[in-house]
Amino acid sequence: MPDEGPIHVGLIYGGRSPEHEVSIDSARNVFEELTQSARHRVTPIRIDRRGRWHVEPPEAAAWHDHSSGAPEGAGHASRRALLAPAGEDAEVLPGSPDGTAALEPLALDVAFPLLHGPNGEDGRVQGLLHTLDLPYVGPDVLGSALCMDKDVAKRLLRDADLPVVPFRVLHYYGGEPLSFDEVADALGVPFFVKPANAGSSVGTAKVETEPAYAPAVRSAFAFDNKVLLETAIDGREIECAVIGNQEAPRVAGPGEIVSEDTFYTYEAKYDEELDAAHMEVPADLPGGVPDRARSLAERAYRLAACEGLARVDFFFTEEDGRHDLLLNEINTIPGFTERSMFPVMWEDAGLPAGELAAELIRLALERHERDARLKMTP
Ligand SMILES: Nc1ncnc2c1ncn2[C@@H]1O[C@H](COP(=O)(O)OP(=O)(O)O)[C@@H](O)[C@H]1O
Ligand SMILES: [Mg+2]
């Protein structure tokens, strides 16, 4: 961590994930916010769809998905890179475009993994950064992995008596296959089918009839080896934005996502032209509900070992004057796209996007310093 001069941030994006393109969108926004301030120097580090790392020239970072068509990395000055221990410090080491030059450390102060979904949000990249002793934004391995796995996360929350949606699990190896009638008996109809480890509604379907069940399960298994079946909740989708390390989480929101699609699908989330969803910040909710949502969000955040940031999502239901909040999921690297709620909730809470990004970096450095005090000898 430099005493003077800007903090050198490695902004890691793309990734071997179905949410590759969403990540590029998020990273472009965070790059713009961070580079507004002289406090930061940002090096874009792109992970392509095959998992190869590239250091991009900041002035000409390719903020689009050039993996389709021309071979990746071709035709611009990005350099292949590898993450490895180098000398005293662990480092990202870019090579030259033709691969001939000696590897030279980037000298990063902090990494900002802005990767959504598997292989980025699930602890795998966090484990690599942790092993290299490089400070990084967002939860450590445990929090990242357990929040990514909706089955594990829900069991943990349920064990702490936090309200979750009733669910069942299917495994790729068969285990106990559940017929449509068995699911209908256990969870009711309609019900949701989704991969346990995915995001952005990828592979997710609402099943209303028996013929739709098998294809929905097949689509979900295309993305993961474990599939969740859940009671379909007829409610509103509200979200809280949390930042902070374990000792002092701060909560913004709740905001509400209003989707005009059958549910909050991938298209409703990101398709600008379709424009099938909008955000209400703050959410218009009955008295007492926002406080309860914030308090549940904080408890879930701590319980799920989150640090840095996370977005905690709920369903809000109202029936005969009785209302209820159910936890849906925790996202440890929430979207920062133009259509994403996390930065909007913080803006509404008085923390504009530039300051939010700077605060996330400060939290990463603070956490790293805290953990550096842990003894490594008995
Ligand atoms: N049990 C459920 N009841 C009602 N809607 C659901 C349910 N599960 C998922 N959905 C809908 O699908 C969307 C995506 O599911 P979610 O569990 O949030 O996974 P992810 O956002 O990680 O893909 C939700 O925002 C919601 O619109
Ligand atoms: Mg979600």
Q: Which stretches are poorly predicted, pLDDT < 50 over at least 5 residues?
A: 68-75
Total of DSSP H or I helical runs spanning 4+ residues:
10
Q: How many domain modules?
A: 3
User: Which quaternary structure do these chains form?
Assistant: single chain
Q: How many runs of DSSP E, i.e. beta strands?
A: 15
* CATH architecture descriptor of the largest domain: 2-Layer Sandwich
**How much is the radius of gyration in Å?**
21 Å
At the fourth CATH level, what is the homologous superfamily of the largest domain? ATP-grasp fold, B domain
Q: Based on CA inertia axes, which overall geometry fits?
A: globular
Structural features, described:
- The protein has 378 residues and is α+β, with helices and mostly antiparallel strands.
- The chain folds into three domains: 7-136, 3-Layer(aba) Sandwich (Rossmann fold); 147-163 and 234-370, ATP-grasp fold, B domain (D-amino Acid Aminotransferase, Chain A, domain 1, 2-Layer Sandwich); 167-231, Dna Ligase, domain 1 (2-Layer Sandwich), CATH 3.30.1490.
- It is built from ten helices and 15 strands.
- Residues 68-75 have low confidence and may be disordered.
- Adenosine-5'-diphosphate binds at residues 165, 192, 194, 198-201, 204, 230-233, 237, 263-264, 313, 328-329.
